[in-house]
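Researcher: We're teaching a course module on how sequence relates to structure. For the next exercise, students receive a sequence and then see the predicted structure as C-alpha cells, so they can try to spot secondary structure elements on their own. Here is the exercise chain.
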Amino acid sequence: MGPSFAALKAREPMPQGPGDYLGPTSELRIVAAIERMAETYGPQGWWPVQCERKHFANPQGPYEMDGYHPGEFEFPRTRQGRWEICCGALLTQNTAWTNVRKALLGLHERRITTPEQLLSTHVQTLRSVIRPAGYFNQKSGYLRAVAEWFVSNDSKLCRTERSRAHLENWRPELLGVRGIGPETADSILLYAYALPTFVVDAYTRRVFERLALVGPGWNYERIRGSFEAALGRESVDATVQSWQEAHALIVEHAKRHHARGADPKKDFLLDLT
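Model: And here is the predicted structure for the students to work with:
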C-alpha cells in the first residue's frame, strides 16, 4: 500500500511550511497506518456495485451480497455500474451508507436504474424513492444534474486514458455540476472511472488528526495532496488500486474507532504517533 519504507526514507527532506505537503517521516507514518489497517481488516472491495454482483468471483459471499468485491479491482465493468456509483457517491452526502443502500434499493425496485430513466421520473416520485438518504429535496435536484452530466460525458470518460493529466482535465468540469463538491467528485472519478485522485472525507480527518498527521485547519486539497504523495505507486493502475483500498480502509477504521461511544484508547494506530 504505497511506496516501501526504504523508498520513503531515501527521499530528500521536504519543507513543511503552512502551504506545503508532508515530509518523508510523516509520509512513512501514513503508509504504516494504512498497512496496519490492511493487516487488520483485509481487502475492502470498494465501491459497492450491486448491479454487477453476478460477475464477482464469489457473488454469494458475505461482503459480495452487499455489492463489495474484495480483491477485485476491475469493477465497475458496465455503464449501469458506473451510474450506480455516481448515485451512491451523491446520495451518501451527510448520511450513513445504510440509508444510501435503502435509497438505491428503492431506485432499483422502481426500475430507475439509468440516468435516462431518472430524468424521465417525476420529481415528486424521485424524492419519495430517495427519502431514506435524507435531504431528498436537494438530492433529487443534484441527481438530475449528475444524470445530465453522465449522459453527456460517460461514453467519453470511460474511454479516457487513466492518467493524472486527464484527471485534471475532467475534475473541474465535474466540480461545476450542481451538488458536486470535491469529495463527491473524487469518489466518482476514482471509483467509477479509475482515475488517480484520492478521496478525502470526514473519516480521513478524524483518523489522521488524532495521529497528528492532519492539522485542524487543513483544507481539502492540502490533505489530498499529502496522501497522494505518501501513497502513490509507480504505475497509474497500481496507484488507483492503492488509493481505492486506502480510502476504504480509513472508513472502516473510523467506523470502528471514531464512532460515537468508541473508546479512543483502543485505537491500535495510536502507537504510531
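Model: If you want an answer key for the exercise: The first helix runs from residue 5 to 9. The chain has two domains: 1-41+198-273, 76-197.
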